[in-house]
């Protein structure tokens, strides 16, 4: 059995034997690229070494001698030769990448003799002795476990003595002295010696790499990443090349395309007569790669050809390191290049256009989280680094915005009307704040989580929002707010980063917005393969328009209650709620109906023939009632009853657990006239839009909070009767559906019974999660931090679908619902409808669509398509 | 095909052909009992009649003539014969009993001639003409549809004219005149005539009975009771016998055993020379059946033999009607006798002792609801009828009690200490009222349902309780209450009936309590066959003692939080809750631990070796905090902090939906020291009791509100560690279990994961129902009445297990839990643990025990056994 192979010597070997780095070097060698020569000691050797009782490399001896000999022939240099010294790197390389977890030794082959040869070869004695010094340090650390700080301390002591700041300020003499000091440290640490025998250097280095497979941080990394500990690591021994060699030499880094924009063409930088270290140390400023063309045109063209060849071979943008040694170009490494979100989209589309990859491959390379960065502004990175950070909250809705802080909706509106850019800062928001929220650049709250009112509304509007700022106290009396102790008066300017949750003092400049038409191209490919459609949750005309602009194929959730919070509307609503007689309620409802028709007409005309799912009134009625006495008094006057009576009627509606109280379809059992008004408003609007715009409208009327088949059947019959009576009376025809949210656990358990009368199902995952987990979203702040601290709740179930619990109920509901109606339309319209990690689950569930807030539609389209690709794997 | 059979002529015929009454008469005839002769026209005849286009009885004519002829021979009387007139009754009798739904005609065969013969035979002309008058009236009503009130009006007019009050004050002449008037009413109603032909009377009567099968009230009854409308009714024609005939005659009613007490021996009453009518009209007072022995010893013995024969034949206590006509005893009817609850138990046990029935039969004849009447006092029936009823509420806990009304716990206690019997009347109760509740005879609230705090606590104590009195307003300011408008001051006396939910003004006398040792006998038989055990939910020593007295085999739910509401304890509790530092909390916990040890020792010593399941602290902490400012101020002073600070800390604990908030095991994730204190209190108590009483104690420690496997595993490990550290340190040994409530829907869905670390499961059906249905028990009052009115919620799911929804989750949990641990102990400890209708479901579920409040234990034991019997069917 062989343990050592020159790069590309045996093309049947894979990552398993050669490790990732070894395979990569072999691959480049195989492609005929100018890779510095070297060989790989296989993982089998590592396993053999670690398994033997007395760990020794004796079994490798013959092969190693042969491999070194071949390498010396190839490079025309010899290990230990003082004139033409061969220097090598010894690096680990496991089958699965474990960045930085194991050890590396560079410049191996230097000793008191060969260092002189290197100094002559490079015409740079300082560099040669610095390499030697580094080898001694690295070798001591890796082979003998002499801690780096011991060497660093000696270096620092010398610099102090010489009163210099930088390593490079030391003289050649200093370096030679340091080398002697370092050698002394070996002896002091345990009677070791730095071996002057280069053969011994090589053997000890190889053993050290083998052993590093078992070091504690490598073991921890493997445990965390579930990597098999029995594999072992390969060892790569490779010729060192020098960009500071005599003649045409240099070093550089380049990408095959611009990693910031994705623009095609070589992008990178280089330095002539330099080592990679020089670039890192910032001693000299590198040149853009384009100027290499003028300086070394032949080498530039050669590199360009190589770059193209690598990109074509790996079928993705490459990030390459190269060195020119005495007019000879070497490629040291290539890997898939990291890139910004806009670049990722552009590169994906370009590679498809160029015929390099197919569309599914392009889709699979993109991440849903990249899209937020495309849709929302960002602050300039340099400005952020220098800004005064106030505090960090939860990043509830992405974006970057600057404005003057105001503490209530009314003040915010006034400032906005006066031309100010406004940031609404509150303890929490409620539906009453909606007008102030709409005109704000950003919304900040001290309470609430990722699914609080502020967060949900802001995401719906695409407005930057940070919530749950525990270090923020708003003092409404004093009109000031404490940001982690720093007091800011109303009107002060802050900047809000909705991507990170950070707040900054003052105004920060924004990056110029990147608008990518390539996004649309990729998403249209996604729609072709996605296993289900993506719809949107939206109700205002602005939200609805945004949803369709972002490619939503329908509206999965139009919440009608959000429509009742305008100043004119809420009064009618309150009048309706507080009516004690049906007749009074009917009067208020008639006024509300006119307003609802206005809303629905706008939605239906924007939606054209796309399905619109309108949910009838859902929240407990007391949410609409004023909580402070001033407003209560106003209402009393307006309704012509006493304040005491108003208070009594409001108290009457109060509930201990409103989430599980008189809301949703339960309202319609008590007050059928509310839902009857709403369905007539829907029907009249649909008919009007059909007539005006000549396109079909098929409203999907959705009943919230259905828990039993009897209430579903009862309300369906009631509303169908109401609608049909209207249609007959007015000699009109309309196709419509009456379906239900599935958001109560019981509804999942009796979904077969409910499906008998429901035309469609739509999972309301927010409520379903609340009830399945027994978690009130408004109250989990009291204990969720403790759970997360103890590691008892890895993912917030309102953000990431709980597949074991909530998901199991959803599976039951789909199976039972389709048992009754095989072609039942089923969607998911709660907060986790846009959760990318849940998409494979939704695919297996066999639903027809997910529905999420407009700004999450693009990432949901991508994630949906990707779920289909993982299936194909 | 034959349509008519003399009684017992063909013994192969069943209820289906003969109807219930016909089969019963045939059966008695077959037994050789002296039943008046007669014949049955089968249901087939009715179907034939109703099916034919022109409804006629022609097809029966020949058979009917023959049957009448045979009857005349048997009775030695002839239909229409003026000297020896045969009179018959014509009655319907359907295969399934439809009491009072169809028609009957008595004394058929009377006309202007035969009435004279009857007068002579009975030597009672008044009686004969009264019979004739009644026949004419009944016949007019049944055959021609001439409304009864028309006849009644004529009767009343005559009485007015004669200035008499009672029918019996009319003279013979008056009756004769009335008969002529009645005949005139036939003509007036539609040119009808009362037929003097007795043949015609018979044919018309038979047709009328056939038709009555289709009358509206019969149709409604069949629809409501799901009785097949195609069956038709049979018709029974039977000789009338007269207890007022010349010679030894009389009539009576008797039971084979005392229906009030169950005491063996004939029980009943009779009148000589009288018709049944006389008894009903109350003209004469009947004699006890025993005196018949002296008056007519032969007949008495004959009747006694018949009674024994009937009871032996039907194997149950019989309710019989008999008539003696001229020395000849006739049995007119026998049926299973109705009886009181104590009688039912005594009879069941006696019949088993006598070898008449076996134990399962005895068990199957009893109803779980009977037991309430055995355990709790009742008001005297006669007193209730005359009492002034105030209003009706929901009967939350059975019993009957009288006392002075008080509106708060403190006043109630003061009155109690002054020697008064007290009824606590409140809008609602809270844990703070517990001391006032304990000393009250009865508890009444205006709000809340069958599972409100008042209801649950009262049932636990076996205290009479009426809740949800919508017509009750308590005015705490004026110290008065409005009972449906009637104002009563504090201190006024009322009586409360917890069986019916009725409140009465003043004091009502109670029935002498019936304590039945037979109950214990029956329940011990039940335990032998029950498919699962019955445990109790109890925590006070009194409750625990009651539970074991009533045969609980363990404690399924000891709620530790109820122990913290005493005045001394609640302060320590508040101190613990409001502590901001762990050290302060530890001080308060140490004090609470001592008190808990006192509690647990009592429980363990009462329980002996029975299992005790102790639930650790469950409710949200703010339930323990004072809500009114006076108490808050007291607390502030006691804790040495400002009122504002107290208010702030209390507000901090407030939650929007406390039911789904920071409670149950979630408290222990935040404050592990609370549960650690509780488990150590349990362990120390168990060890102490083991030492003192020399019996093993095996505490089952129960974690509430577990929803994930991670929190179960985390808390189990934490508490196990705490306990084991203590045991090791103190060199002690103790067997204990740590299990969980299954009360969150998610827990059911991941029960396989939770079972990995839980030692047992106990379904908390209250919370499970709340979350599965999305119903807050405290708030369903806002909409449940509307649901019930619309028929959308047939049973209150907190009273009757929702098998389709909640039950489906329970099935999942049992299946998944036992998949992980095949021998996992599983119980049901919520409110529906004692629901008799759920017992067959629990049997199929395969649980180990149900646990309910102590006073429900006996009925649960009965229902559990019955569930096994239905399985055997």
Automatic annotation (TrEMBL), chains A, B:
Keyword Hydrolase set for record: no
Cofactors: Mg(2+)
Keywords: ATP-binding, Kinase, Magnesium, Metal-binding, Nucleotide-binding, Pyruvate, Transferase
Binding positions (substrate): 559, 615, 743, 764-767
Domain PEP-utilising enzyme mobile: 420-501
Family matches, as InterPro entries: ATP_grasp_subdomain_1 (IPR013815), PEP-util_enz_mobile_dom (IPR008279), PEP_util_AS (IPR018274), PEP_util_C (IPR000121), PEP_util_CS (IPR023151), Phosphohistidine_dom_sf (IPR036637), PPDK_AMP/ATP-bd (IPR002192), Pyruvate_phosphate_dikinase (IPR010121)
Protein name as annotated: Pyruvate, phosphate dikinase
Encoding gene (name): ppdK
Gene Ontology MF, one: ATP binding
Enzyme class: transferase
Domain PEP-utilising enzyme C-terminal: 518-868
Pfam families assigned to the protein according to its UniProt record, in alphabetical order: PEP-utilizers (PF00391), PEP-utilizers_C (PF02896), PPDK_N (PF01326)
Binding site for Mg(2+): 743, 767
Segments forming domain Pyruvate phosphate dikinase AMP/ATP-binding: 17-53, 60-300, 301-342
EC number of the protein: 2.7.9.1
């Amino acid at each position: 059995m062989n343990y050592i192979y020159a790069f590309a010597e045996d093309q049947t070997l894979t990552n398993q034997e050669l490790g990732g780095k070894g395979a990569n070097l072999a691959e480049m060698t195989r492609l005929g690229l100018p890779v510095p020569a070297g060989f790989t000691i296989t993982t089998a050797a590592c396993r053999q070494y670690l398994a033997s009782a007395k760990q020794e490399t004796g079994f490798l001896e013959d092969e190693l001698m042969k491999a070194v000999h071949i390498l010396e022939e190839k490079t025309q240099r010899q290990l230990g030769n003082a004139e033409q010294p061969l220097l090598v790197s010894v690096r680990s390389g496991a089958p699965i990448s474990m960045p930085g977890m194991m050890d590396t030794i560079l410049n191996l082959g230097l000793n008191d003799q060969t260092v002189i040869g290197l100094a002559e070869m490079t015409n740079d004695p300082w560099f040669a002795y610095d390499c030697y010094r580094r080898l001694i340090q690295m070798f001591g650390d890796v082979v003998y476990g002499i801690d780096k700080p011991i060497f660093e301390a000696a270096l620092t002591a010398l610099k102090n003595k010489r009163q210099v700041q930088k390593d490079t300020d030391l003289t050649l003499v200093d370096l030679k002295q340091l080398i002697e000091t370092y050698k002394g440290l070996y002896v002091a640490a345990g009677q070791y010696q730095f071996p002057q025998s280069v053969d011994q250097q090589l053997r000890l280095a190889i053993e050290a790499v083998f052993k590093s497979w078992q070091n504690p941080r490598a073991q921890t990394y493997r445990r965390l990443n579930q990597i098999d500990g029995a594999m072992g690591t390969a060892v790569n021994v490779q010729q060192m090349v020098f960009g500071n060699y005599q003649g045409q030499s240099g070093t550089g880094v380049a990408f095959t395309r611009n990693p910031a924009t994705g623009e095609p063409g070589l992008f990178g930088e280089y330095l002539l007569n330099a080592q990679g270290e020089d670039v890192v140390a910032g001693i000299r400023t590198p040149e853009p790669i384009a100027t290499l063309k003028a300086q070394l045109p032949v080498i530039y063209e050669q590199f360009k050809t190589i770059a193209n060849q690598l990109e074509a071979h790996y079928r993705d943008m490459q990030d390459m390191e190269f060195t020119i040694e005495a007019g000879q170009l070497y490629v040291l490494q290539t890997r898939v290049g990291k890139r910004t979100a806009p670049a990722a989209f552009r590169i994906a589309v370009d590679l498809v256009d160029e015929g390099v990859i197919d569309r599914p491959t392009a889709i699979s390379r993109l991440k849903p989280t990249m899209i937020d960065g495309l849709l929302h502004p960002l602050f300039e990175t340099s400005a952020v680094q220098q800004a005064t950070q106030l505090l960090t909250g939860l990043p509830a809705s992405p974006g970057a915005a600057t404005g003057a802080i105001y503490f209530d909706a009314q003040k915010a509106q006034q400032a906005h009307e006066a031309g100010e850019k406004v940031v609404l800062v509150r303890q929490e928001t409620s539906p009453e704040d909606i007008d102030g929220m709409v005109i704000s650049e950003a919304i900040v709250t001290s309470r609430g989580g990722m699914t609080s009112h502020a967060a949900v509304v802001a995401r719906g509007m695409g407005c930057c929002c940070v919530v749950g700022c525990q270090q923020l106290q708003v003092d409404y009396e004093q009109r000031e707010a404490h940001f982690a102790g720093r007091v800011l008066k109303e009107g002060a300017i802050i900047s809000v980063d909705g991507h990170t949750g950070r707040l900054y003092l003052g105004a920060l400049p924004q990056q110029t917005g990147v608008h990518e038409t390539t996004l649309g191209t990729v998403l249209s490919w996604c729609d072709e393969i996605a296993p289900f459609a993506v719809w949107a949750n939206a109700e205002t005309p602005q939200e609805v328009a945004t949803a369709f602009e972002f490619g939503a194929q329908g509206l999965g959730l139009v919440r009608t209650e959000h429509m009742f919070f305008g100043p004119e509307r809420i009064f009618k609503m309150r009048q309706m709620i507080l009516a004690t007689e049906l007749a009074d309620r009917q009067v208020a409802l008639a006024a509300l109906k006119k307003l609802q028709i206005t809303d629905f007409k706008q939605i239906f005309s924007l939606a054209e023939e796309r399905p619109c799912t309108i949910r009838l009134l859902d929240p407990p009625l007391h949410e609409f009632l004023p909580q402070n006495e001033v407003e209560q008094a106003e209402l009393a006057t307006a309704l012509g009853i006493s304040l005491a009576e108003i208070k009594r009627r409001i108290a009457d509606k109060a509930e201990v657990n409103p989430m599980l109280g008189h809301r949703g379809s339960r309202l319609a059992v008590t007050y059928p006239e509310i839902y009857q008004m709403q369905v007539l408003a829907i029907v009249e609007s649909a008919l009007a839009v059909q007539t005006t715009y000549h396109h079909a409208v098929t409203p999907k009327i959705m009943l919230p909070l259905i828990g039993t088949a009897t209430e579903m059947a009862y309300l369906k019959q009631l509303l169908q009767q109401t609608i049909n009576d209207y249609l007959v009376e007015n000699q009109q025809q309309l196709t419509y559906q009456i379906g239900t949210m599935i958001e109560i656990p019981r509804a999942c358990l009796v979904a077969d019974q409910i499906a008998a009368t429901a035309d469609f199902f739509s999972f309301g995952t927010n409520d379903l999660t609340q009830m399945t987990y027994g978690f009130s979203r408004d109250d989990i702040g009291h204990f969720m931090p403790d759970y997360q601290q103890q590691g008892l709740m890895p993912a917030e179930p309102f953000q990431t679908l709980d597949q074991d619990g909530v998901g199991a109920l959803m599976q039951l509901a789909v199976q039972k619902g389709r048992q009754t109606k095989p072609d039942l339309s089923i969607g998911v319209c709660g907060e986790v409808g846009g959760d990318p990690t849940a998409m494979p689950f939704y695919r297996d569930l066999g639903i027809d669509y997910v529905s999420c807030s407009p700004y999450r539609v693009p990432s949901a389209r991508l994630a949906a398509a990707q779920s289909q690709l993982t299936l194909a794997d």
